[in-house]
Write a structure and sequence with these properties.
two-stranded antiparallel ribbon, elongated, Rossmann fold, single chain
Amino acid sequence: MIKNFKWLLLVSLTFVACNSDDEPFVDPNSTDGTPLTAGTADFSKYVALGNSLTAGYSDSALFIAGQQGSYPNILASQFALVGGGEFKLPLMADNTGGLLLGGTQIAGTRLYFNGSAPASVPGPPTTDITNVLSGPFNNMGVPGAKSFHLLAPGYGNVAGVLSGQANPYFVRFASSPTTTVLADALAQSPTFFSLWIGNNDVLAYATSGGVGVNQTGNLNPATYGANDITDPNVFASVYTTLVDQLTANGAKGVVANLPYVTTIPYFTTVPYNPVALNATTAAQLNAGYAAYNNGLLFAQSNGLLTAAEVARRTINFSASSTNPVVIVDSYLTNLSGFGIPSYRMATNEDLIVLPARTFIGTTVGGNPAQVNGVSVPLADNWVLSKEEIQEVKAATDAYNASIEAIAQAKGLAFVNANVLQTQIANGGIAANNYTITSAYVTGGGFSLDGVHPSPRGYALIANKFLEAINTTYGSNFKGVNVGLYRILYPLDPANF
């Protein structure tokens, strides 16, 4: 009897084992349920290069939680599932944000939403850039970097920070004062890289309202205008150098093109026509601009202006809740020699920058007759005019053509971030039961600075990078659930 029982038990265990082996394995981390694979890519040494978007900058600052939620760190967490190695971050000292230079504050703290508006987190920063970290670091994203800065020796030299010749964020983790971002990346012998660079090559010009020298081919950070648009030929040359060196030893990678900066909340939140006036106030303002309007007619009668430009420049308010702001436009015919300034009312072809939301309607020196944006025209730095918008778009299109062509030539994975952002700005993208849009504060895609993504936005970007990697290298990453990532950081880091 005992022998028969043992025999039955053995048969039973064998049957269970066979049934278990026959059941298909379903991997919840893959797109198709099959075992997760890296495909033809090797993620054992992943290095990310780029600017603030790569670093995880958010809410006008860099801080620990933002760095940990950066798209490269999310990618690295996925790569780790198929043999990816350690991904080291040059972590800030706190979740307050901001920078010190020898104890003196040189960058402000992060923003948070206080229930009615963005506000700066109180308290001083604790990250002093003179406290250089010991690397190497896998996330080589440097806030503020333009394409050519990745090749610039001395970009991490603390002695050049105050003069603008060096970057305070790179100072913190550069291997030496004379190294370059690219050199420190290559020194790690990456097997896989990501490269997302070029946004700042147009962004600085755009966020300044087009205040810059415009294009130049000079690569010296000390003399290259901070707000200039990088010459597309220079960009193409720099980008070629970056990719050639990153792939020289067989590394594979993923690159992304550049969104139109004019689709981000920084340019789409403040309307061009926010001025509400009653009939009395409108009449008073029109009387104040009568001399200016008459001057335009004088210029037309003397052949200095066309009738079309006179119509464009004429300022006329009405009793309405949607009067346009008055702006200075340097692209108008210069009549300063005749005492006629370059004023006009904004149109829907112009974009008002986000900081203007707290400036329009304020008074100059408390004088109720001097109202910014109304009786006092907005200076050029508050507005991106239609001509400036076209300059930015033309440069972006040229950069993107170079990025895509180089990616194709090198067989790299390619992320069309331009299409992605256009979708977010025009109805949004549905993911994990959420719709992510570019609506300021509430849309879920952007942080409070109106330029950089929110945590959820970075998660979405990481998933788009993974999709491109899957397509090119045959991997099958499923990506992360964007619904697990918040849309805004609270005031108290304890609630992160």
